[in-house]
Each structure stands twice: as structure tokens, then as C-alpha cells.
Input
Amino acid sequence: MDRFAIIGLGRFGSRLARNLSARGAEVIAIDRDRRVVEELRDQVTLAVALDATDEAALKLQGVDQVDVAVVCMGHDFEANALSTVLLKNLKVNRVVSRAANDMQARILNRIGADSVVSPEDEASDRWANRLLSPFIIDHVELGEGYGIVQMPTPEAWRGKTLAELDLRAKHNVTMVAIKRRAPSAGPTGAEEVEERVIDLPTPTSRLTADDILVIAGFDKDLRQLAAL
Output
């Protein structure tokens, strides 16, 4: 089971914690405000009021054991930055931090954040899918629990045809398109890499290591592809 710490329970943080928990993840929700912590207590694995700039307090709650920590204290950038550094010191595998502007994003990247959430990219359901399925390049929600993803070709699929993979029967997903990069001659005669889209893949379409696959399915089935 994926384990997450959500630090900062404003609108984005609270929704993200609920979304991750609803998808079956283990979630530790943290904020200084006891009121917002109480509102989430029955919806996540653990909700606790503490100072997220206190390294000992974070470790006491098991934050050093999570797979991903998301720092989203939107109105306190200093605390946001300090918590990011502390989480990296605790050896958290992946730290995602919220930035209110480009300058903050550059600072967070410089001090070690693995990913940065910007205000225009704060759809909590989309981030829940990204965090649960980091191998996915992009995810578009088409309806409740159903979407389209772009992902690299899993190693186990390379060199095989769609007929051999039988994705519908084995994984309950559908290959919508294949983005393929291939060398071609440029205007000057020099070799360039051209991307073309195979928008109607056939059973005989054979996948390569460099393909980007466009696949539709239920989120729960798409997440299972991470194990391939």
C-alpha cells in the first residue's frame, strides 16, 4: 500500500488527502490548526496537529517512513521551504512542494523538492493520480474513476504485438494510440527525430522501448500497470 504525508490542510491539501485515502492509500494528514485536523480525522489513516518544521515531531508520527510527502502550506513559504528540507533530511523518497509563483518554485527545486505544485495545476484528483502512479506521464480524467494516460512502454511489453499482449483481456485497458519517435532526414539533410502518432493501432502493431502509449481504462486498472 502507498503511504503519503500531506502537510498543510488548506483547500488543496485537504482534498488531496481525501482523494488519496479514497483510492486506498495510507495517508498521514498534518496541520497546525486542530480544527482542520479534526475535520479529516475520520477520512484518513492518521490526522495530527503539529508543527511541520519540527523534525523530531515529524519522525515521531512516522513521516520518515512514507513513500511521498506533499508540502502545501500555501500562506507560509518559509515553513514550506523548511519542511521540504527536513523531509529530505529524513530520507523521504519523494517530496512534492507547493509554490505560489515562479520564484518560489525555483527555490524549492534548488533546496531539493522532487516536484513542485503550481497554483494553476492544483486539481487534487489529478495530483492524486500522479502521486499514486508516478510512471504515468499524463492523466486526463474522462469520468468518475475512468481516464486516459500517457506512459512509456513497460519493459515486459517491449517487442510484443498488441495481439500478444491482449490488453483488454489481461488488464482491462484499451490502447488508444501509440506515439513513436523515429529518425528522419531534416531540411538540411541532417538526421532528426520525428514523432508520429499511430492513432489506430492494430493487433499486429509491435511496441518499441521508445514508444509513448496512450491507454484508456479505469483508474484502478491503469494503476496496476505500474507493476509491469
Summary: The CA atoms of residues 102 and 183 lie 35 Å apart. The mean pLDDT is 85. The radius of gyration is 20 Å.
